[in-house]
Write a structure and sequence with these properties.
Elements: H1 6-24, H2 28-50, H3 54-61, H4 69-76, E1 78-82, E2 95-102, E3 105-112, H5 118-124, H6 131-146, E4 151-157, H7 164-168, H8 171-183, E5 189-198, H9 199-203, E6 210-214, E7 218-220, H10 224-231, H11 238-244, H12 249-254, E8 260-262, H13 273-292, H14 296-310
Parallel strand pairs: 3-4, 4-5, 5-6, 5-7, 6-8
Antiparallel strand pairs: 1-2, 2-3
Helix pairs in contact: 1-2, 4-13, 6-8, 10-11
Length: 322
């Protein structure tokens, strides 16, 4: 439980006790009391979550119970067939992907996958992909292009795996190759940031025609801890860095760096997987319907224009005596 969730815990415990009592001994009085506590919990939850700081949103995006890629695949897609391996070195469990159906239509889905337990996280490398993970994703992107399948990419990683072995196997090249390929992929791409969108590790799956973010997800050029270590030489300034990075969904939408914020259920996605998945499902359906009307050339042109627009800057002339 996160610190800012604790003030809601007493209400949840009271509600659970009342619901249990009402189940064993139903009465109109108990039903009224249950309803009153439910309303109070909803109001308090809305109040707490309406004033979260950027650092608290970082904590929420990292919540160990937050739904991951496979949780969304299970609830949104049908007929998922996972594909493995980069055909060069190995399979990377930190990235999952394969063919699936969305509302009956075939799609290619790729995403970062974290674990729940310590053992699962070790296997998944905490969602930090190795070069072979990015090459596996690239193989699936090209397969999607070949068969004219839309790509849906789910981002949830603190960053790419940074070990010496990863660098020796071409980590930076793998990320750069994905970025280059996604910019000109001749099929629609929808990106959804479902948790952490950290640095180049996220960007390597993050070039899309539409970029969506869940309400309490974060997306930044570096983690707050890394930014604090670079700027202030001390990771303890992570909270300050989180505010400076402008990494929340609403901030990024205001800057036109993402296209849409997908609202989460009260208390965050980890409180209601089904409701969180329903919100993502509705957004995907709507965005895919808009992209389906465009041909491949138009999709690539629009994608190029989208990212060129992000690089806009204002030229300021220096005064003559400068």
């Amino acid at each position: 439980m996160l610190d800012f969730e604790r003030e809601l815990d007493d209400l949840r415990q009271r509600l659970a006790a009342l619901e249990k009592e009402a189940e064993s001994e139903p009465s109109s009085e108990l039903a009224l009391r249950v309803g009153a506590v439910q309303l109070e919990l909803e109001a308090r939850t809305a109040s707490v979550f309406s004033r979260l700081t950027p650092w608290q949103r970082v904590q929420l995006a990292r919540h160990p119970r937050r739904p991951h890629t496979l949780d969304y695949i299970e609830r949104i897609f049908t007929d998922f067939v996972e594909l493995h391996g980069d055909r060069r070195f190995a399979d990377d469990p930190a990235i999952v992907g394969g063919l699936a159906r969305l509302d009956g239509a075939p799609v290619m889905i790729v995403g970062h996958q974290k674990g729940r337990t310590t053992n699962e996280n070790v296997v998944r490398n905490f969602g930090m992909a190795h070069p072979e993970g990015y090459r596996k994703a690239l193989r699936l992107f090209r397969l999607a292009e070949r068969f004219h399948l839309p790509v849906i990419s789910l981002l949830d990683t603190p960053g790419a795996s940074p070990t010496l072995a990863d660098e020796e196997r071409g980590q930076s090249w793998a990320i750069a190759e994905n970025l280059a390929a996604m910019t000109r992929l001749r099929t629609p791409i929808i990106v959804v940031v479902i948790g952490e969108g950290g640095s180049g590790g996220a960007l390597a799956l993050g070039v899309g025609d539409r970029v969506l973010m869940l309400e309490h997800a974060v997306y930044s050029v570096a983690s707050p801890e890394a930014a604090a270590a670079i700027i202030w030489r001390d990771a303890k300034f992570a909270e300050r860095a989180a505010s400076a990075l402008r990494l929340t969904a609403d901030e990024l939408r205001a800057l036109d760096l993402i296209d849409r914020v997908v609202r989460e259920p009260p208390g965050g996605a980890h409180r209601d997987y089904a409701a969180a998945a329903a919100g993502v499902h509705a957004a995907l359906r709507e965005e895919l319907a808009g992209l389906a009307a465009q041909d491949a050339d138009a999709v690539v042109r629009a994608r190029y224009a989208k990212y060129v627009a992000m690089s806009a800057f204002e030229r300021v002339e220096a005064p003559p005596d400068a």
